[in-house]
Amino acid sequence: MTSLAAFARRPTLWVEAGVVLTWGLLVLAFALPTGAASASGSQWSQGPLWVCVTGMTGMGSGLAGHAEHLVLTGGSTSLAGTLPMLALMAVAMMVPPTMPAIGYVAVNSFYWRRRRAVLEFVIAFVGIWVAYNVAVLGALGSAGVASSSLAAAVALALAALWQLTPAKRRALQACHRTRPLPPKGWRATAGVAGFGLRNGVACLASCWAMMLTMAFVGLPSLVWMAALTGLITAERLSQKPRRATRRVGAALATAAVAAVAIALL
User: Fold this and answer.
1) Which of 27, 167, 209, 235 has the greatest CB tally within 10 Å of its CB?
2) Is the dihedral of CA 132, 138, 139, 144 positive or negative?
3) How much is the average pLDDT of 25-31?
4) Cβ density class 154-166: b for 16+ within 10 Å, e for less
5) Environment class of residue 69 by beta-carbon count within 10 Å: exposed (0-12), middle (13-18) or buried (19+)?
6) Could you give the dihedral angle defined by the CA atoms of residues 21, 23, 24 and 29, in that order, rounded to the nearest 10 degrees?
7) Number of structural domains, the chain?
């Protein structure tokens, strides 16, 4: 009972529960039949980048050999419909690796504003990833980039090479840096939000290449999302980050070789 009570008092428990709920919502969304219409008239479709709403079309199964274009149409309406799903995916994939930073915010905030401080951090952090996802999606749609096995192999090879660069190691180190947090008032809000933004930028610099592979890997997106989440979290929480980075790079290189093999079949 004592251990259960201690677990219930964890300052980050509600965030962890939120991540589990988010994954549950994503599983439910991916379980919908392709093209199932919602009450608002939008349609869900499964693709290699993210679960998409109507107006984001042609996102096909790249590793299955279909060279289809990523297209974003509908302007601000399509974007507005996509943002909630992109936010869910950012929470599901990127919040687990940054739980130590969230714990730091919770422990170093007054009890009465602890949840608010954590929420401020998460909003700022997730906002960085939503902006990145929107930028990638828009760029690929504007360029009419095709999803194919060869494109997947190139993206995976790029991610594997990035794992070996000094810039990657510096970015991963920056993910662990902390900063003093003002205790209360607008300075506390600004301090926590700034910490979230800085942590988000460091995380983006570390993981952008791995996340880019989501645009081209034609495996069921939920499977690839879970795999990437596991790799990123293991790398972030490892006591030997350089070794973990190399192992993740080796896993990505292996996936690149597999994509080339599939392309040649």
Assistant:
1) 235
2) positive
3) 84
4) bbbbebbebbeee
5) middle
6) 130
7) 1
- How does pLDDT run across 45-72, given as a tens digit for each residue? 444 334 333 333 333 333 333 333 333 4
User: What are 57's strand-pairing partners?
Assistant: 71
Fill in the amino acid letter for 78: S
What is the pLDDT at residue 68? Answer: 37
Contact 181, 101 (CB under 8 A): no
Cα–Cα distance, 164 to 248 (Å, whole number)? 10
| Count helices and strands in the chain by DSSP H and E runs | 10, 4
**Residue 63: domain span:** 2-264
Contacts of 154 (CB under 8 A, 6+ apart): 216, 256
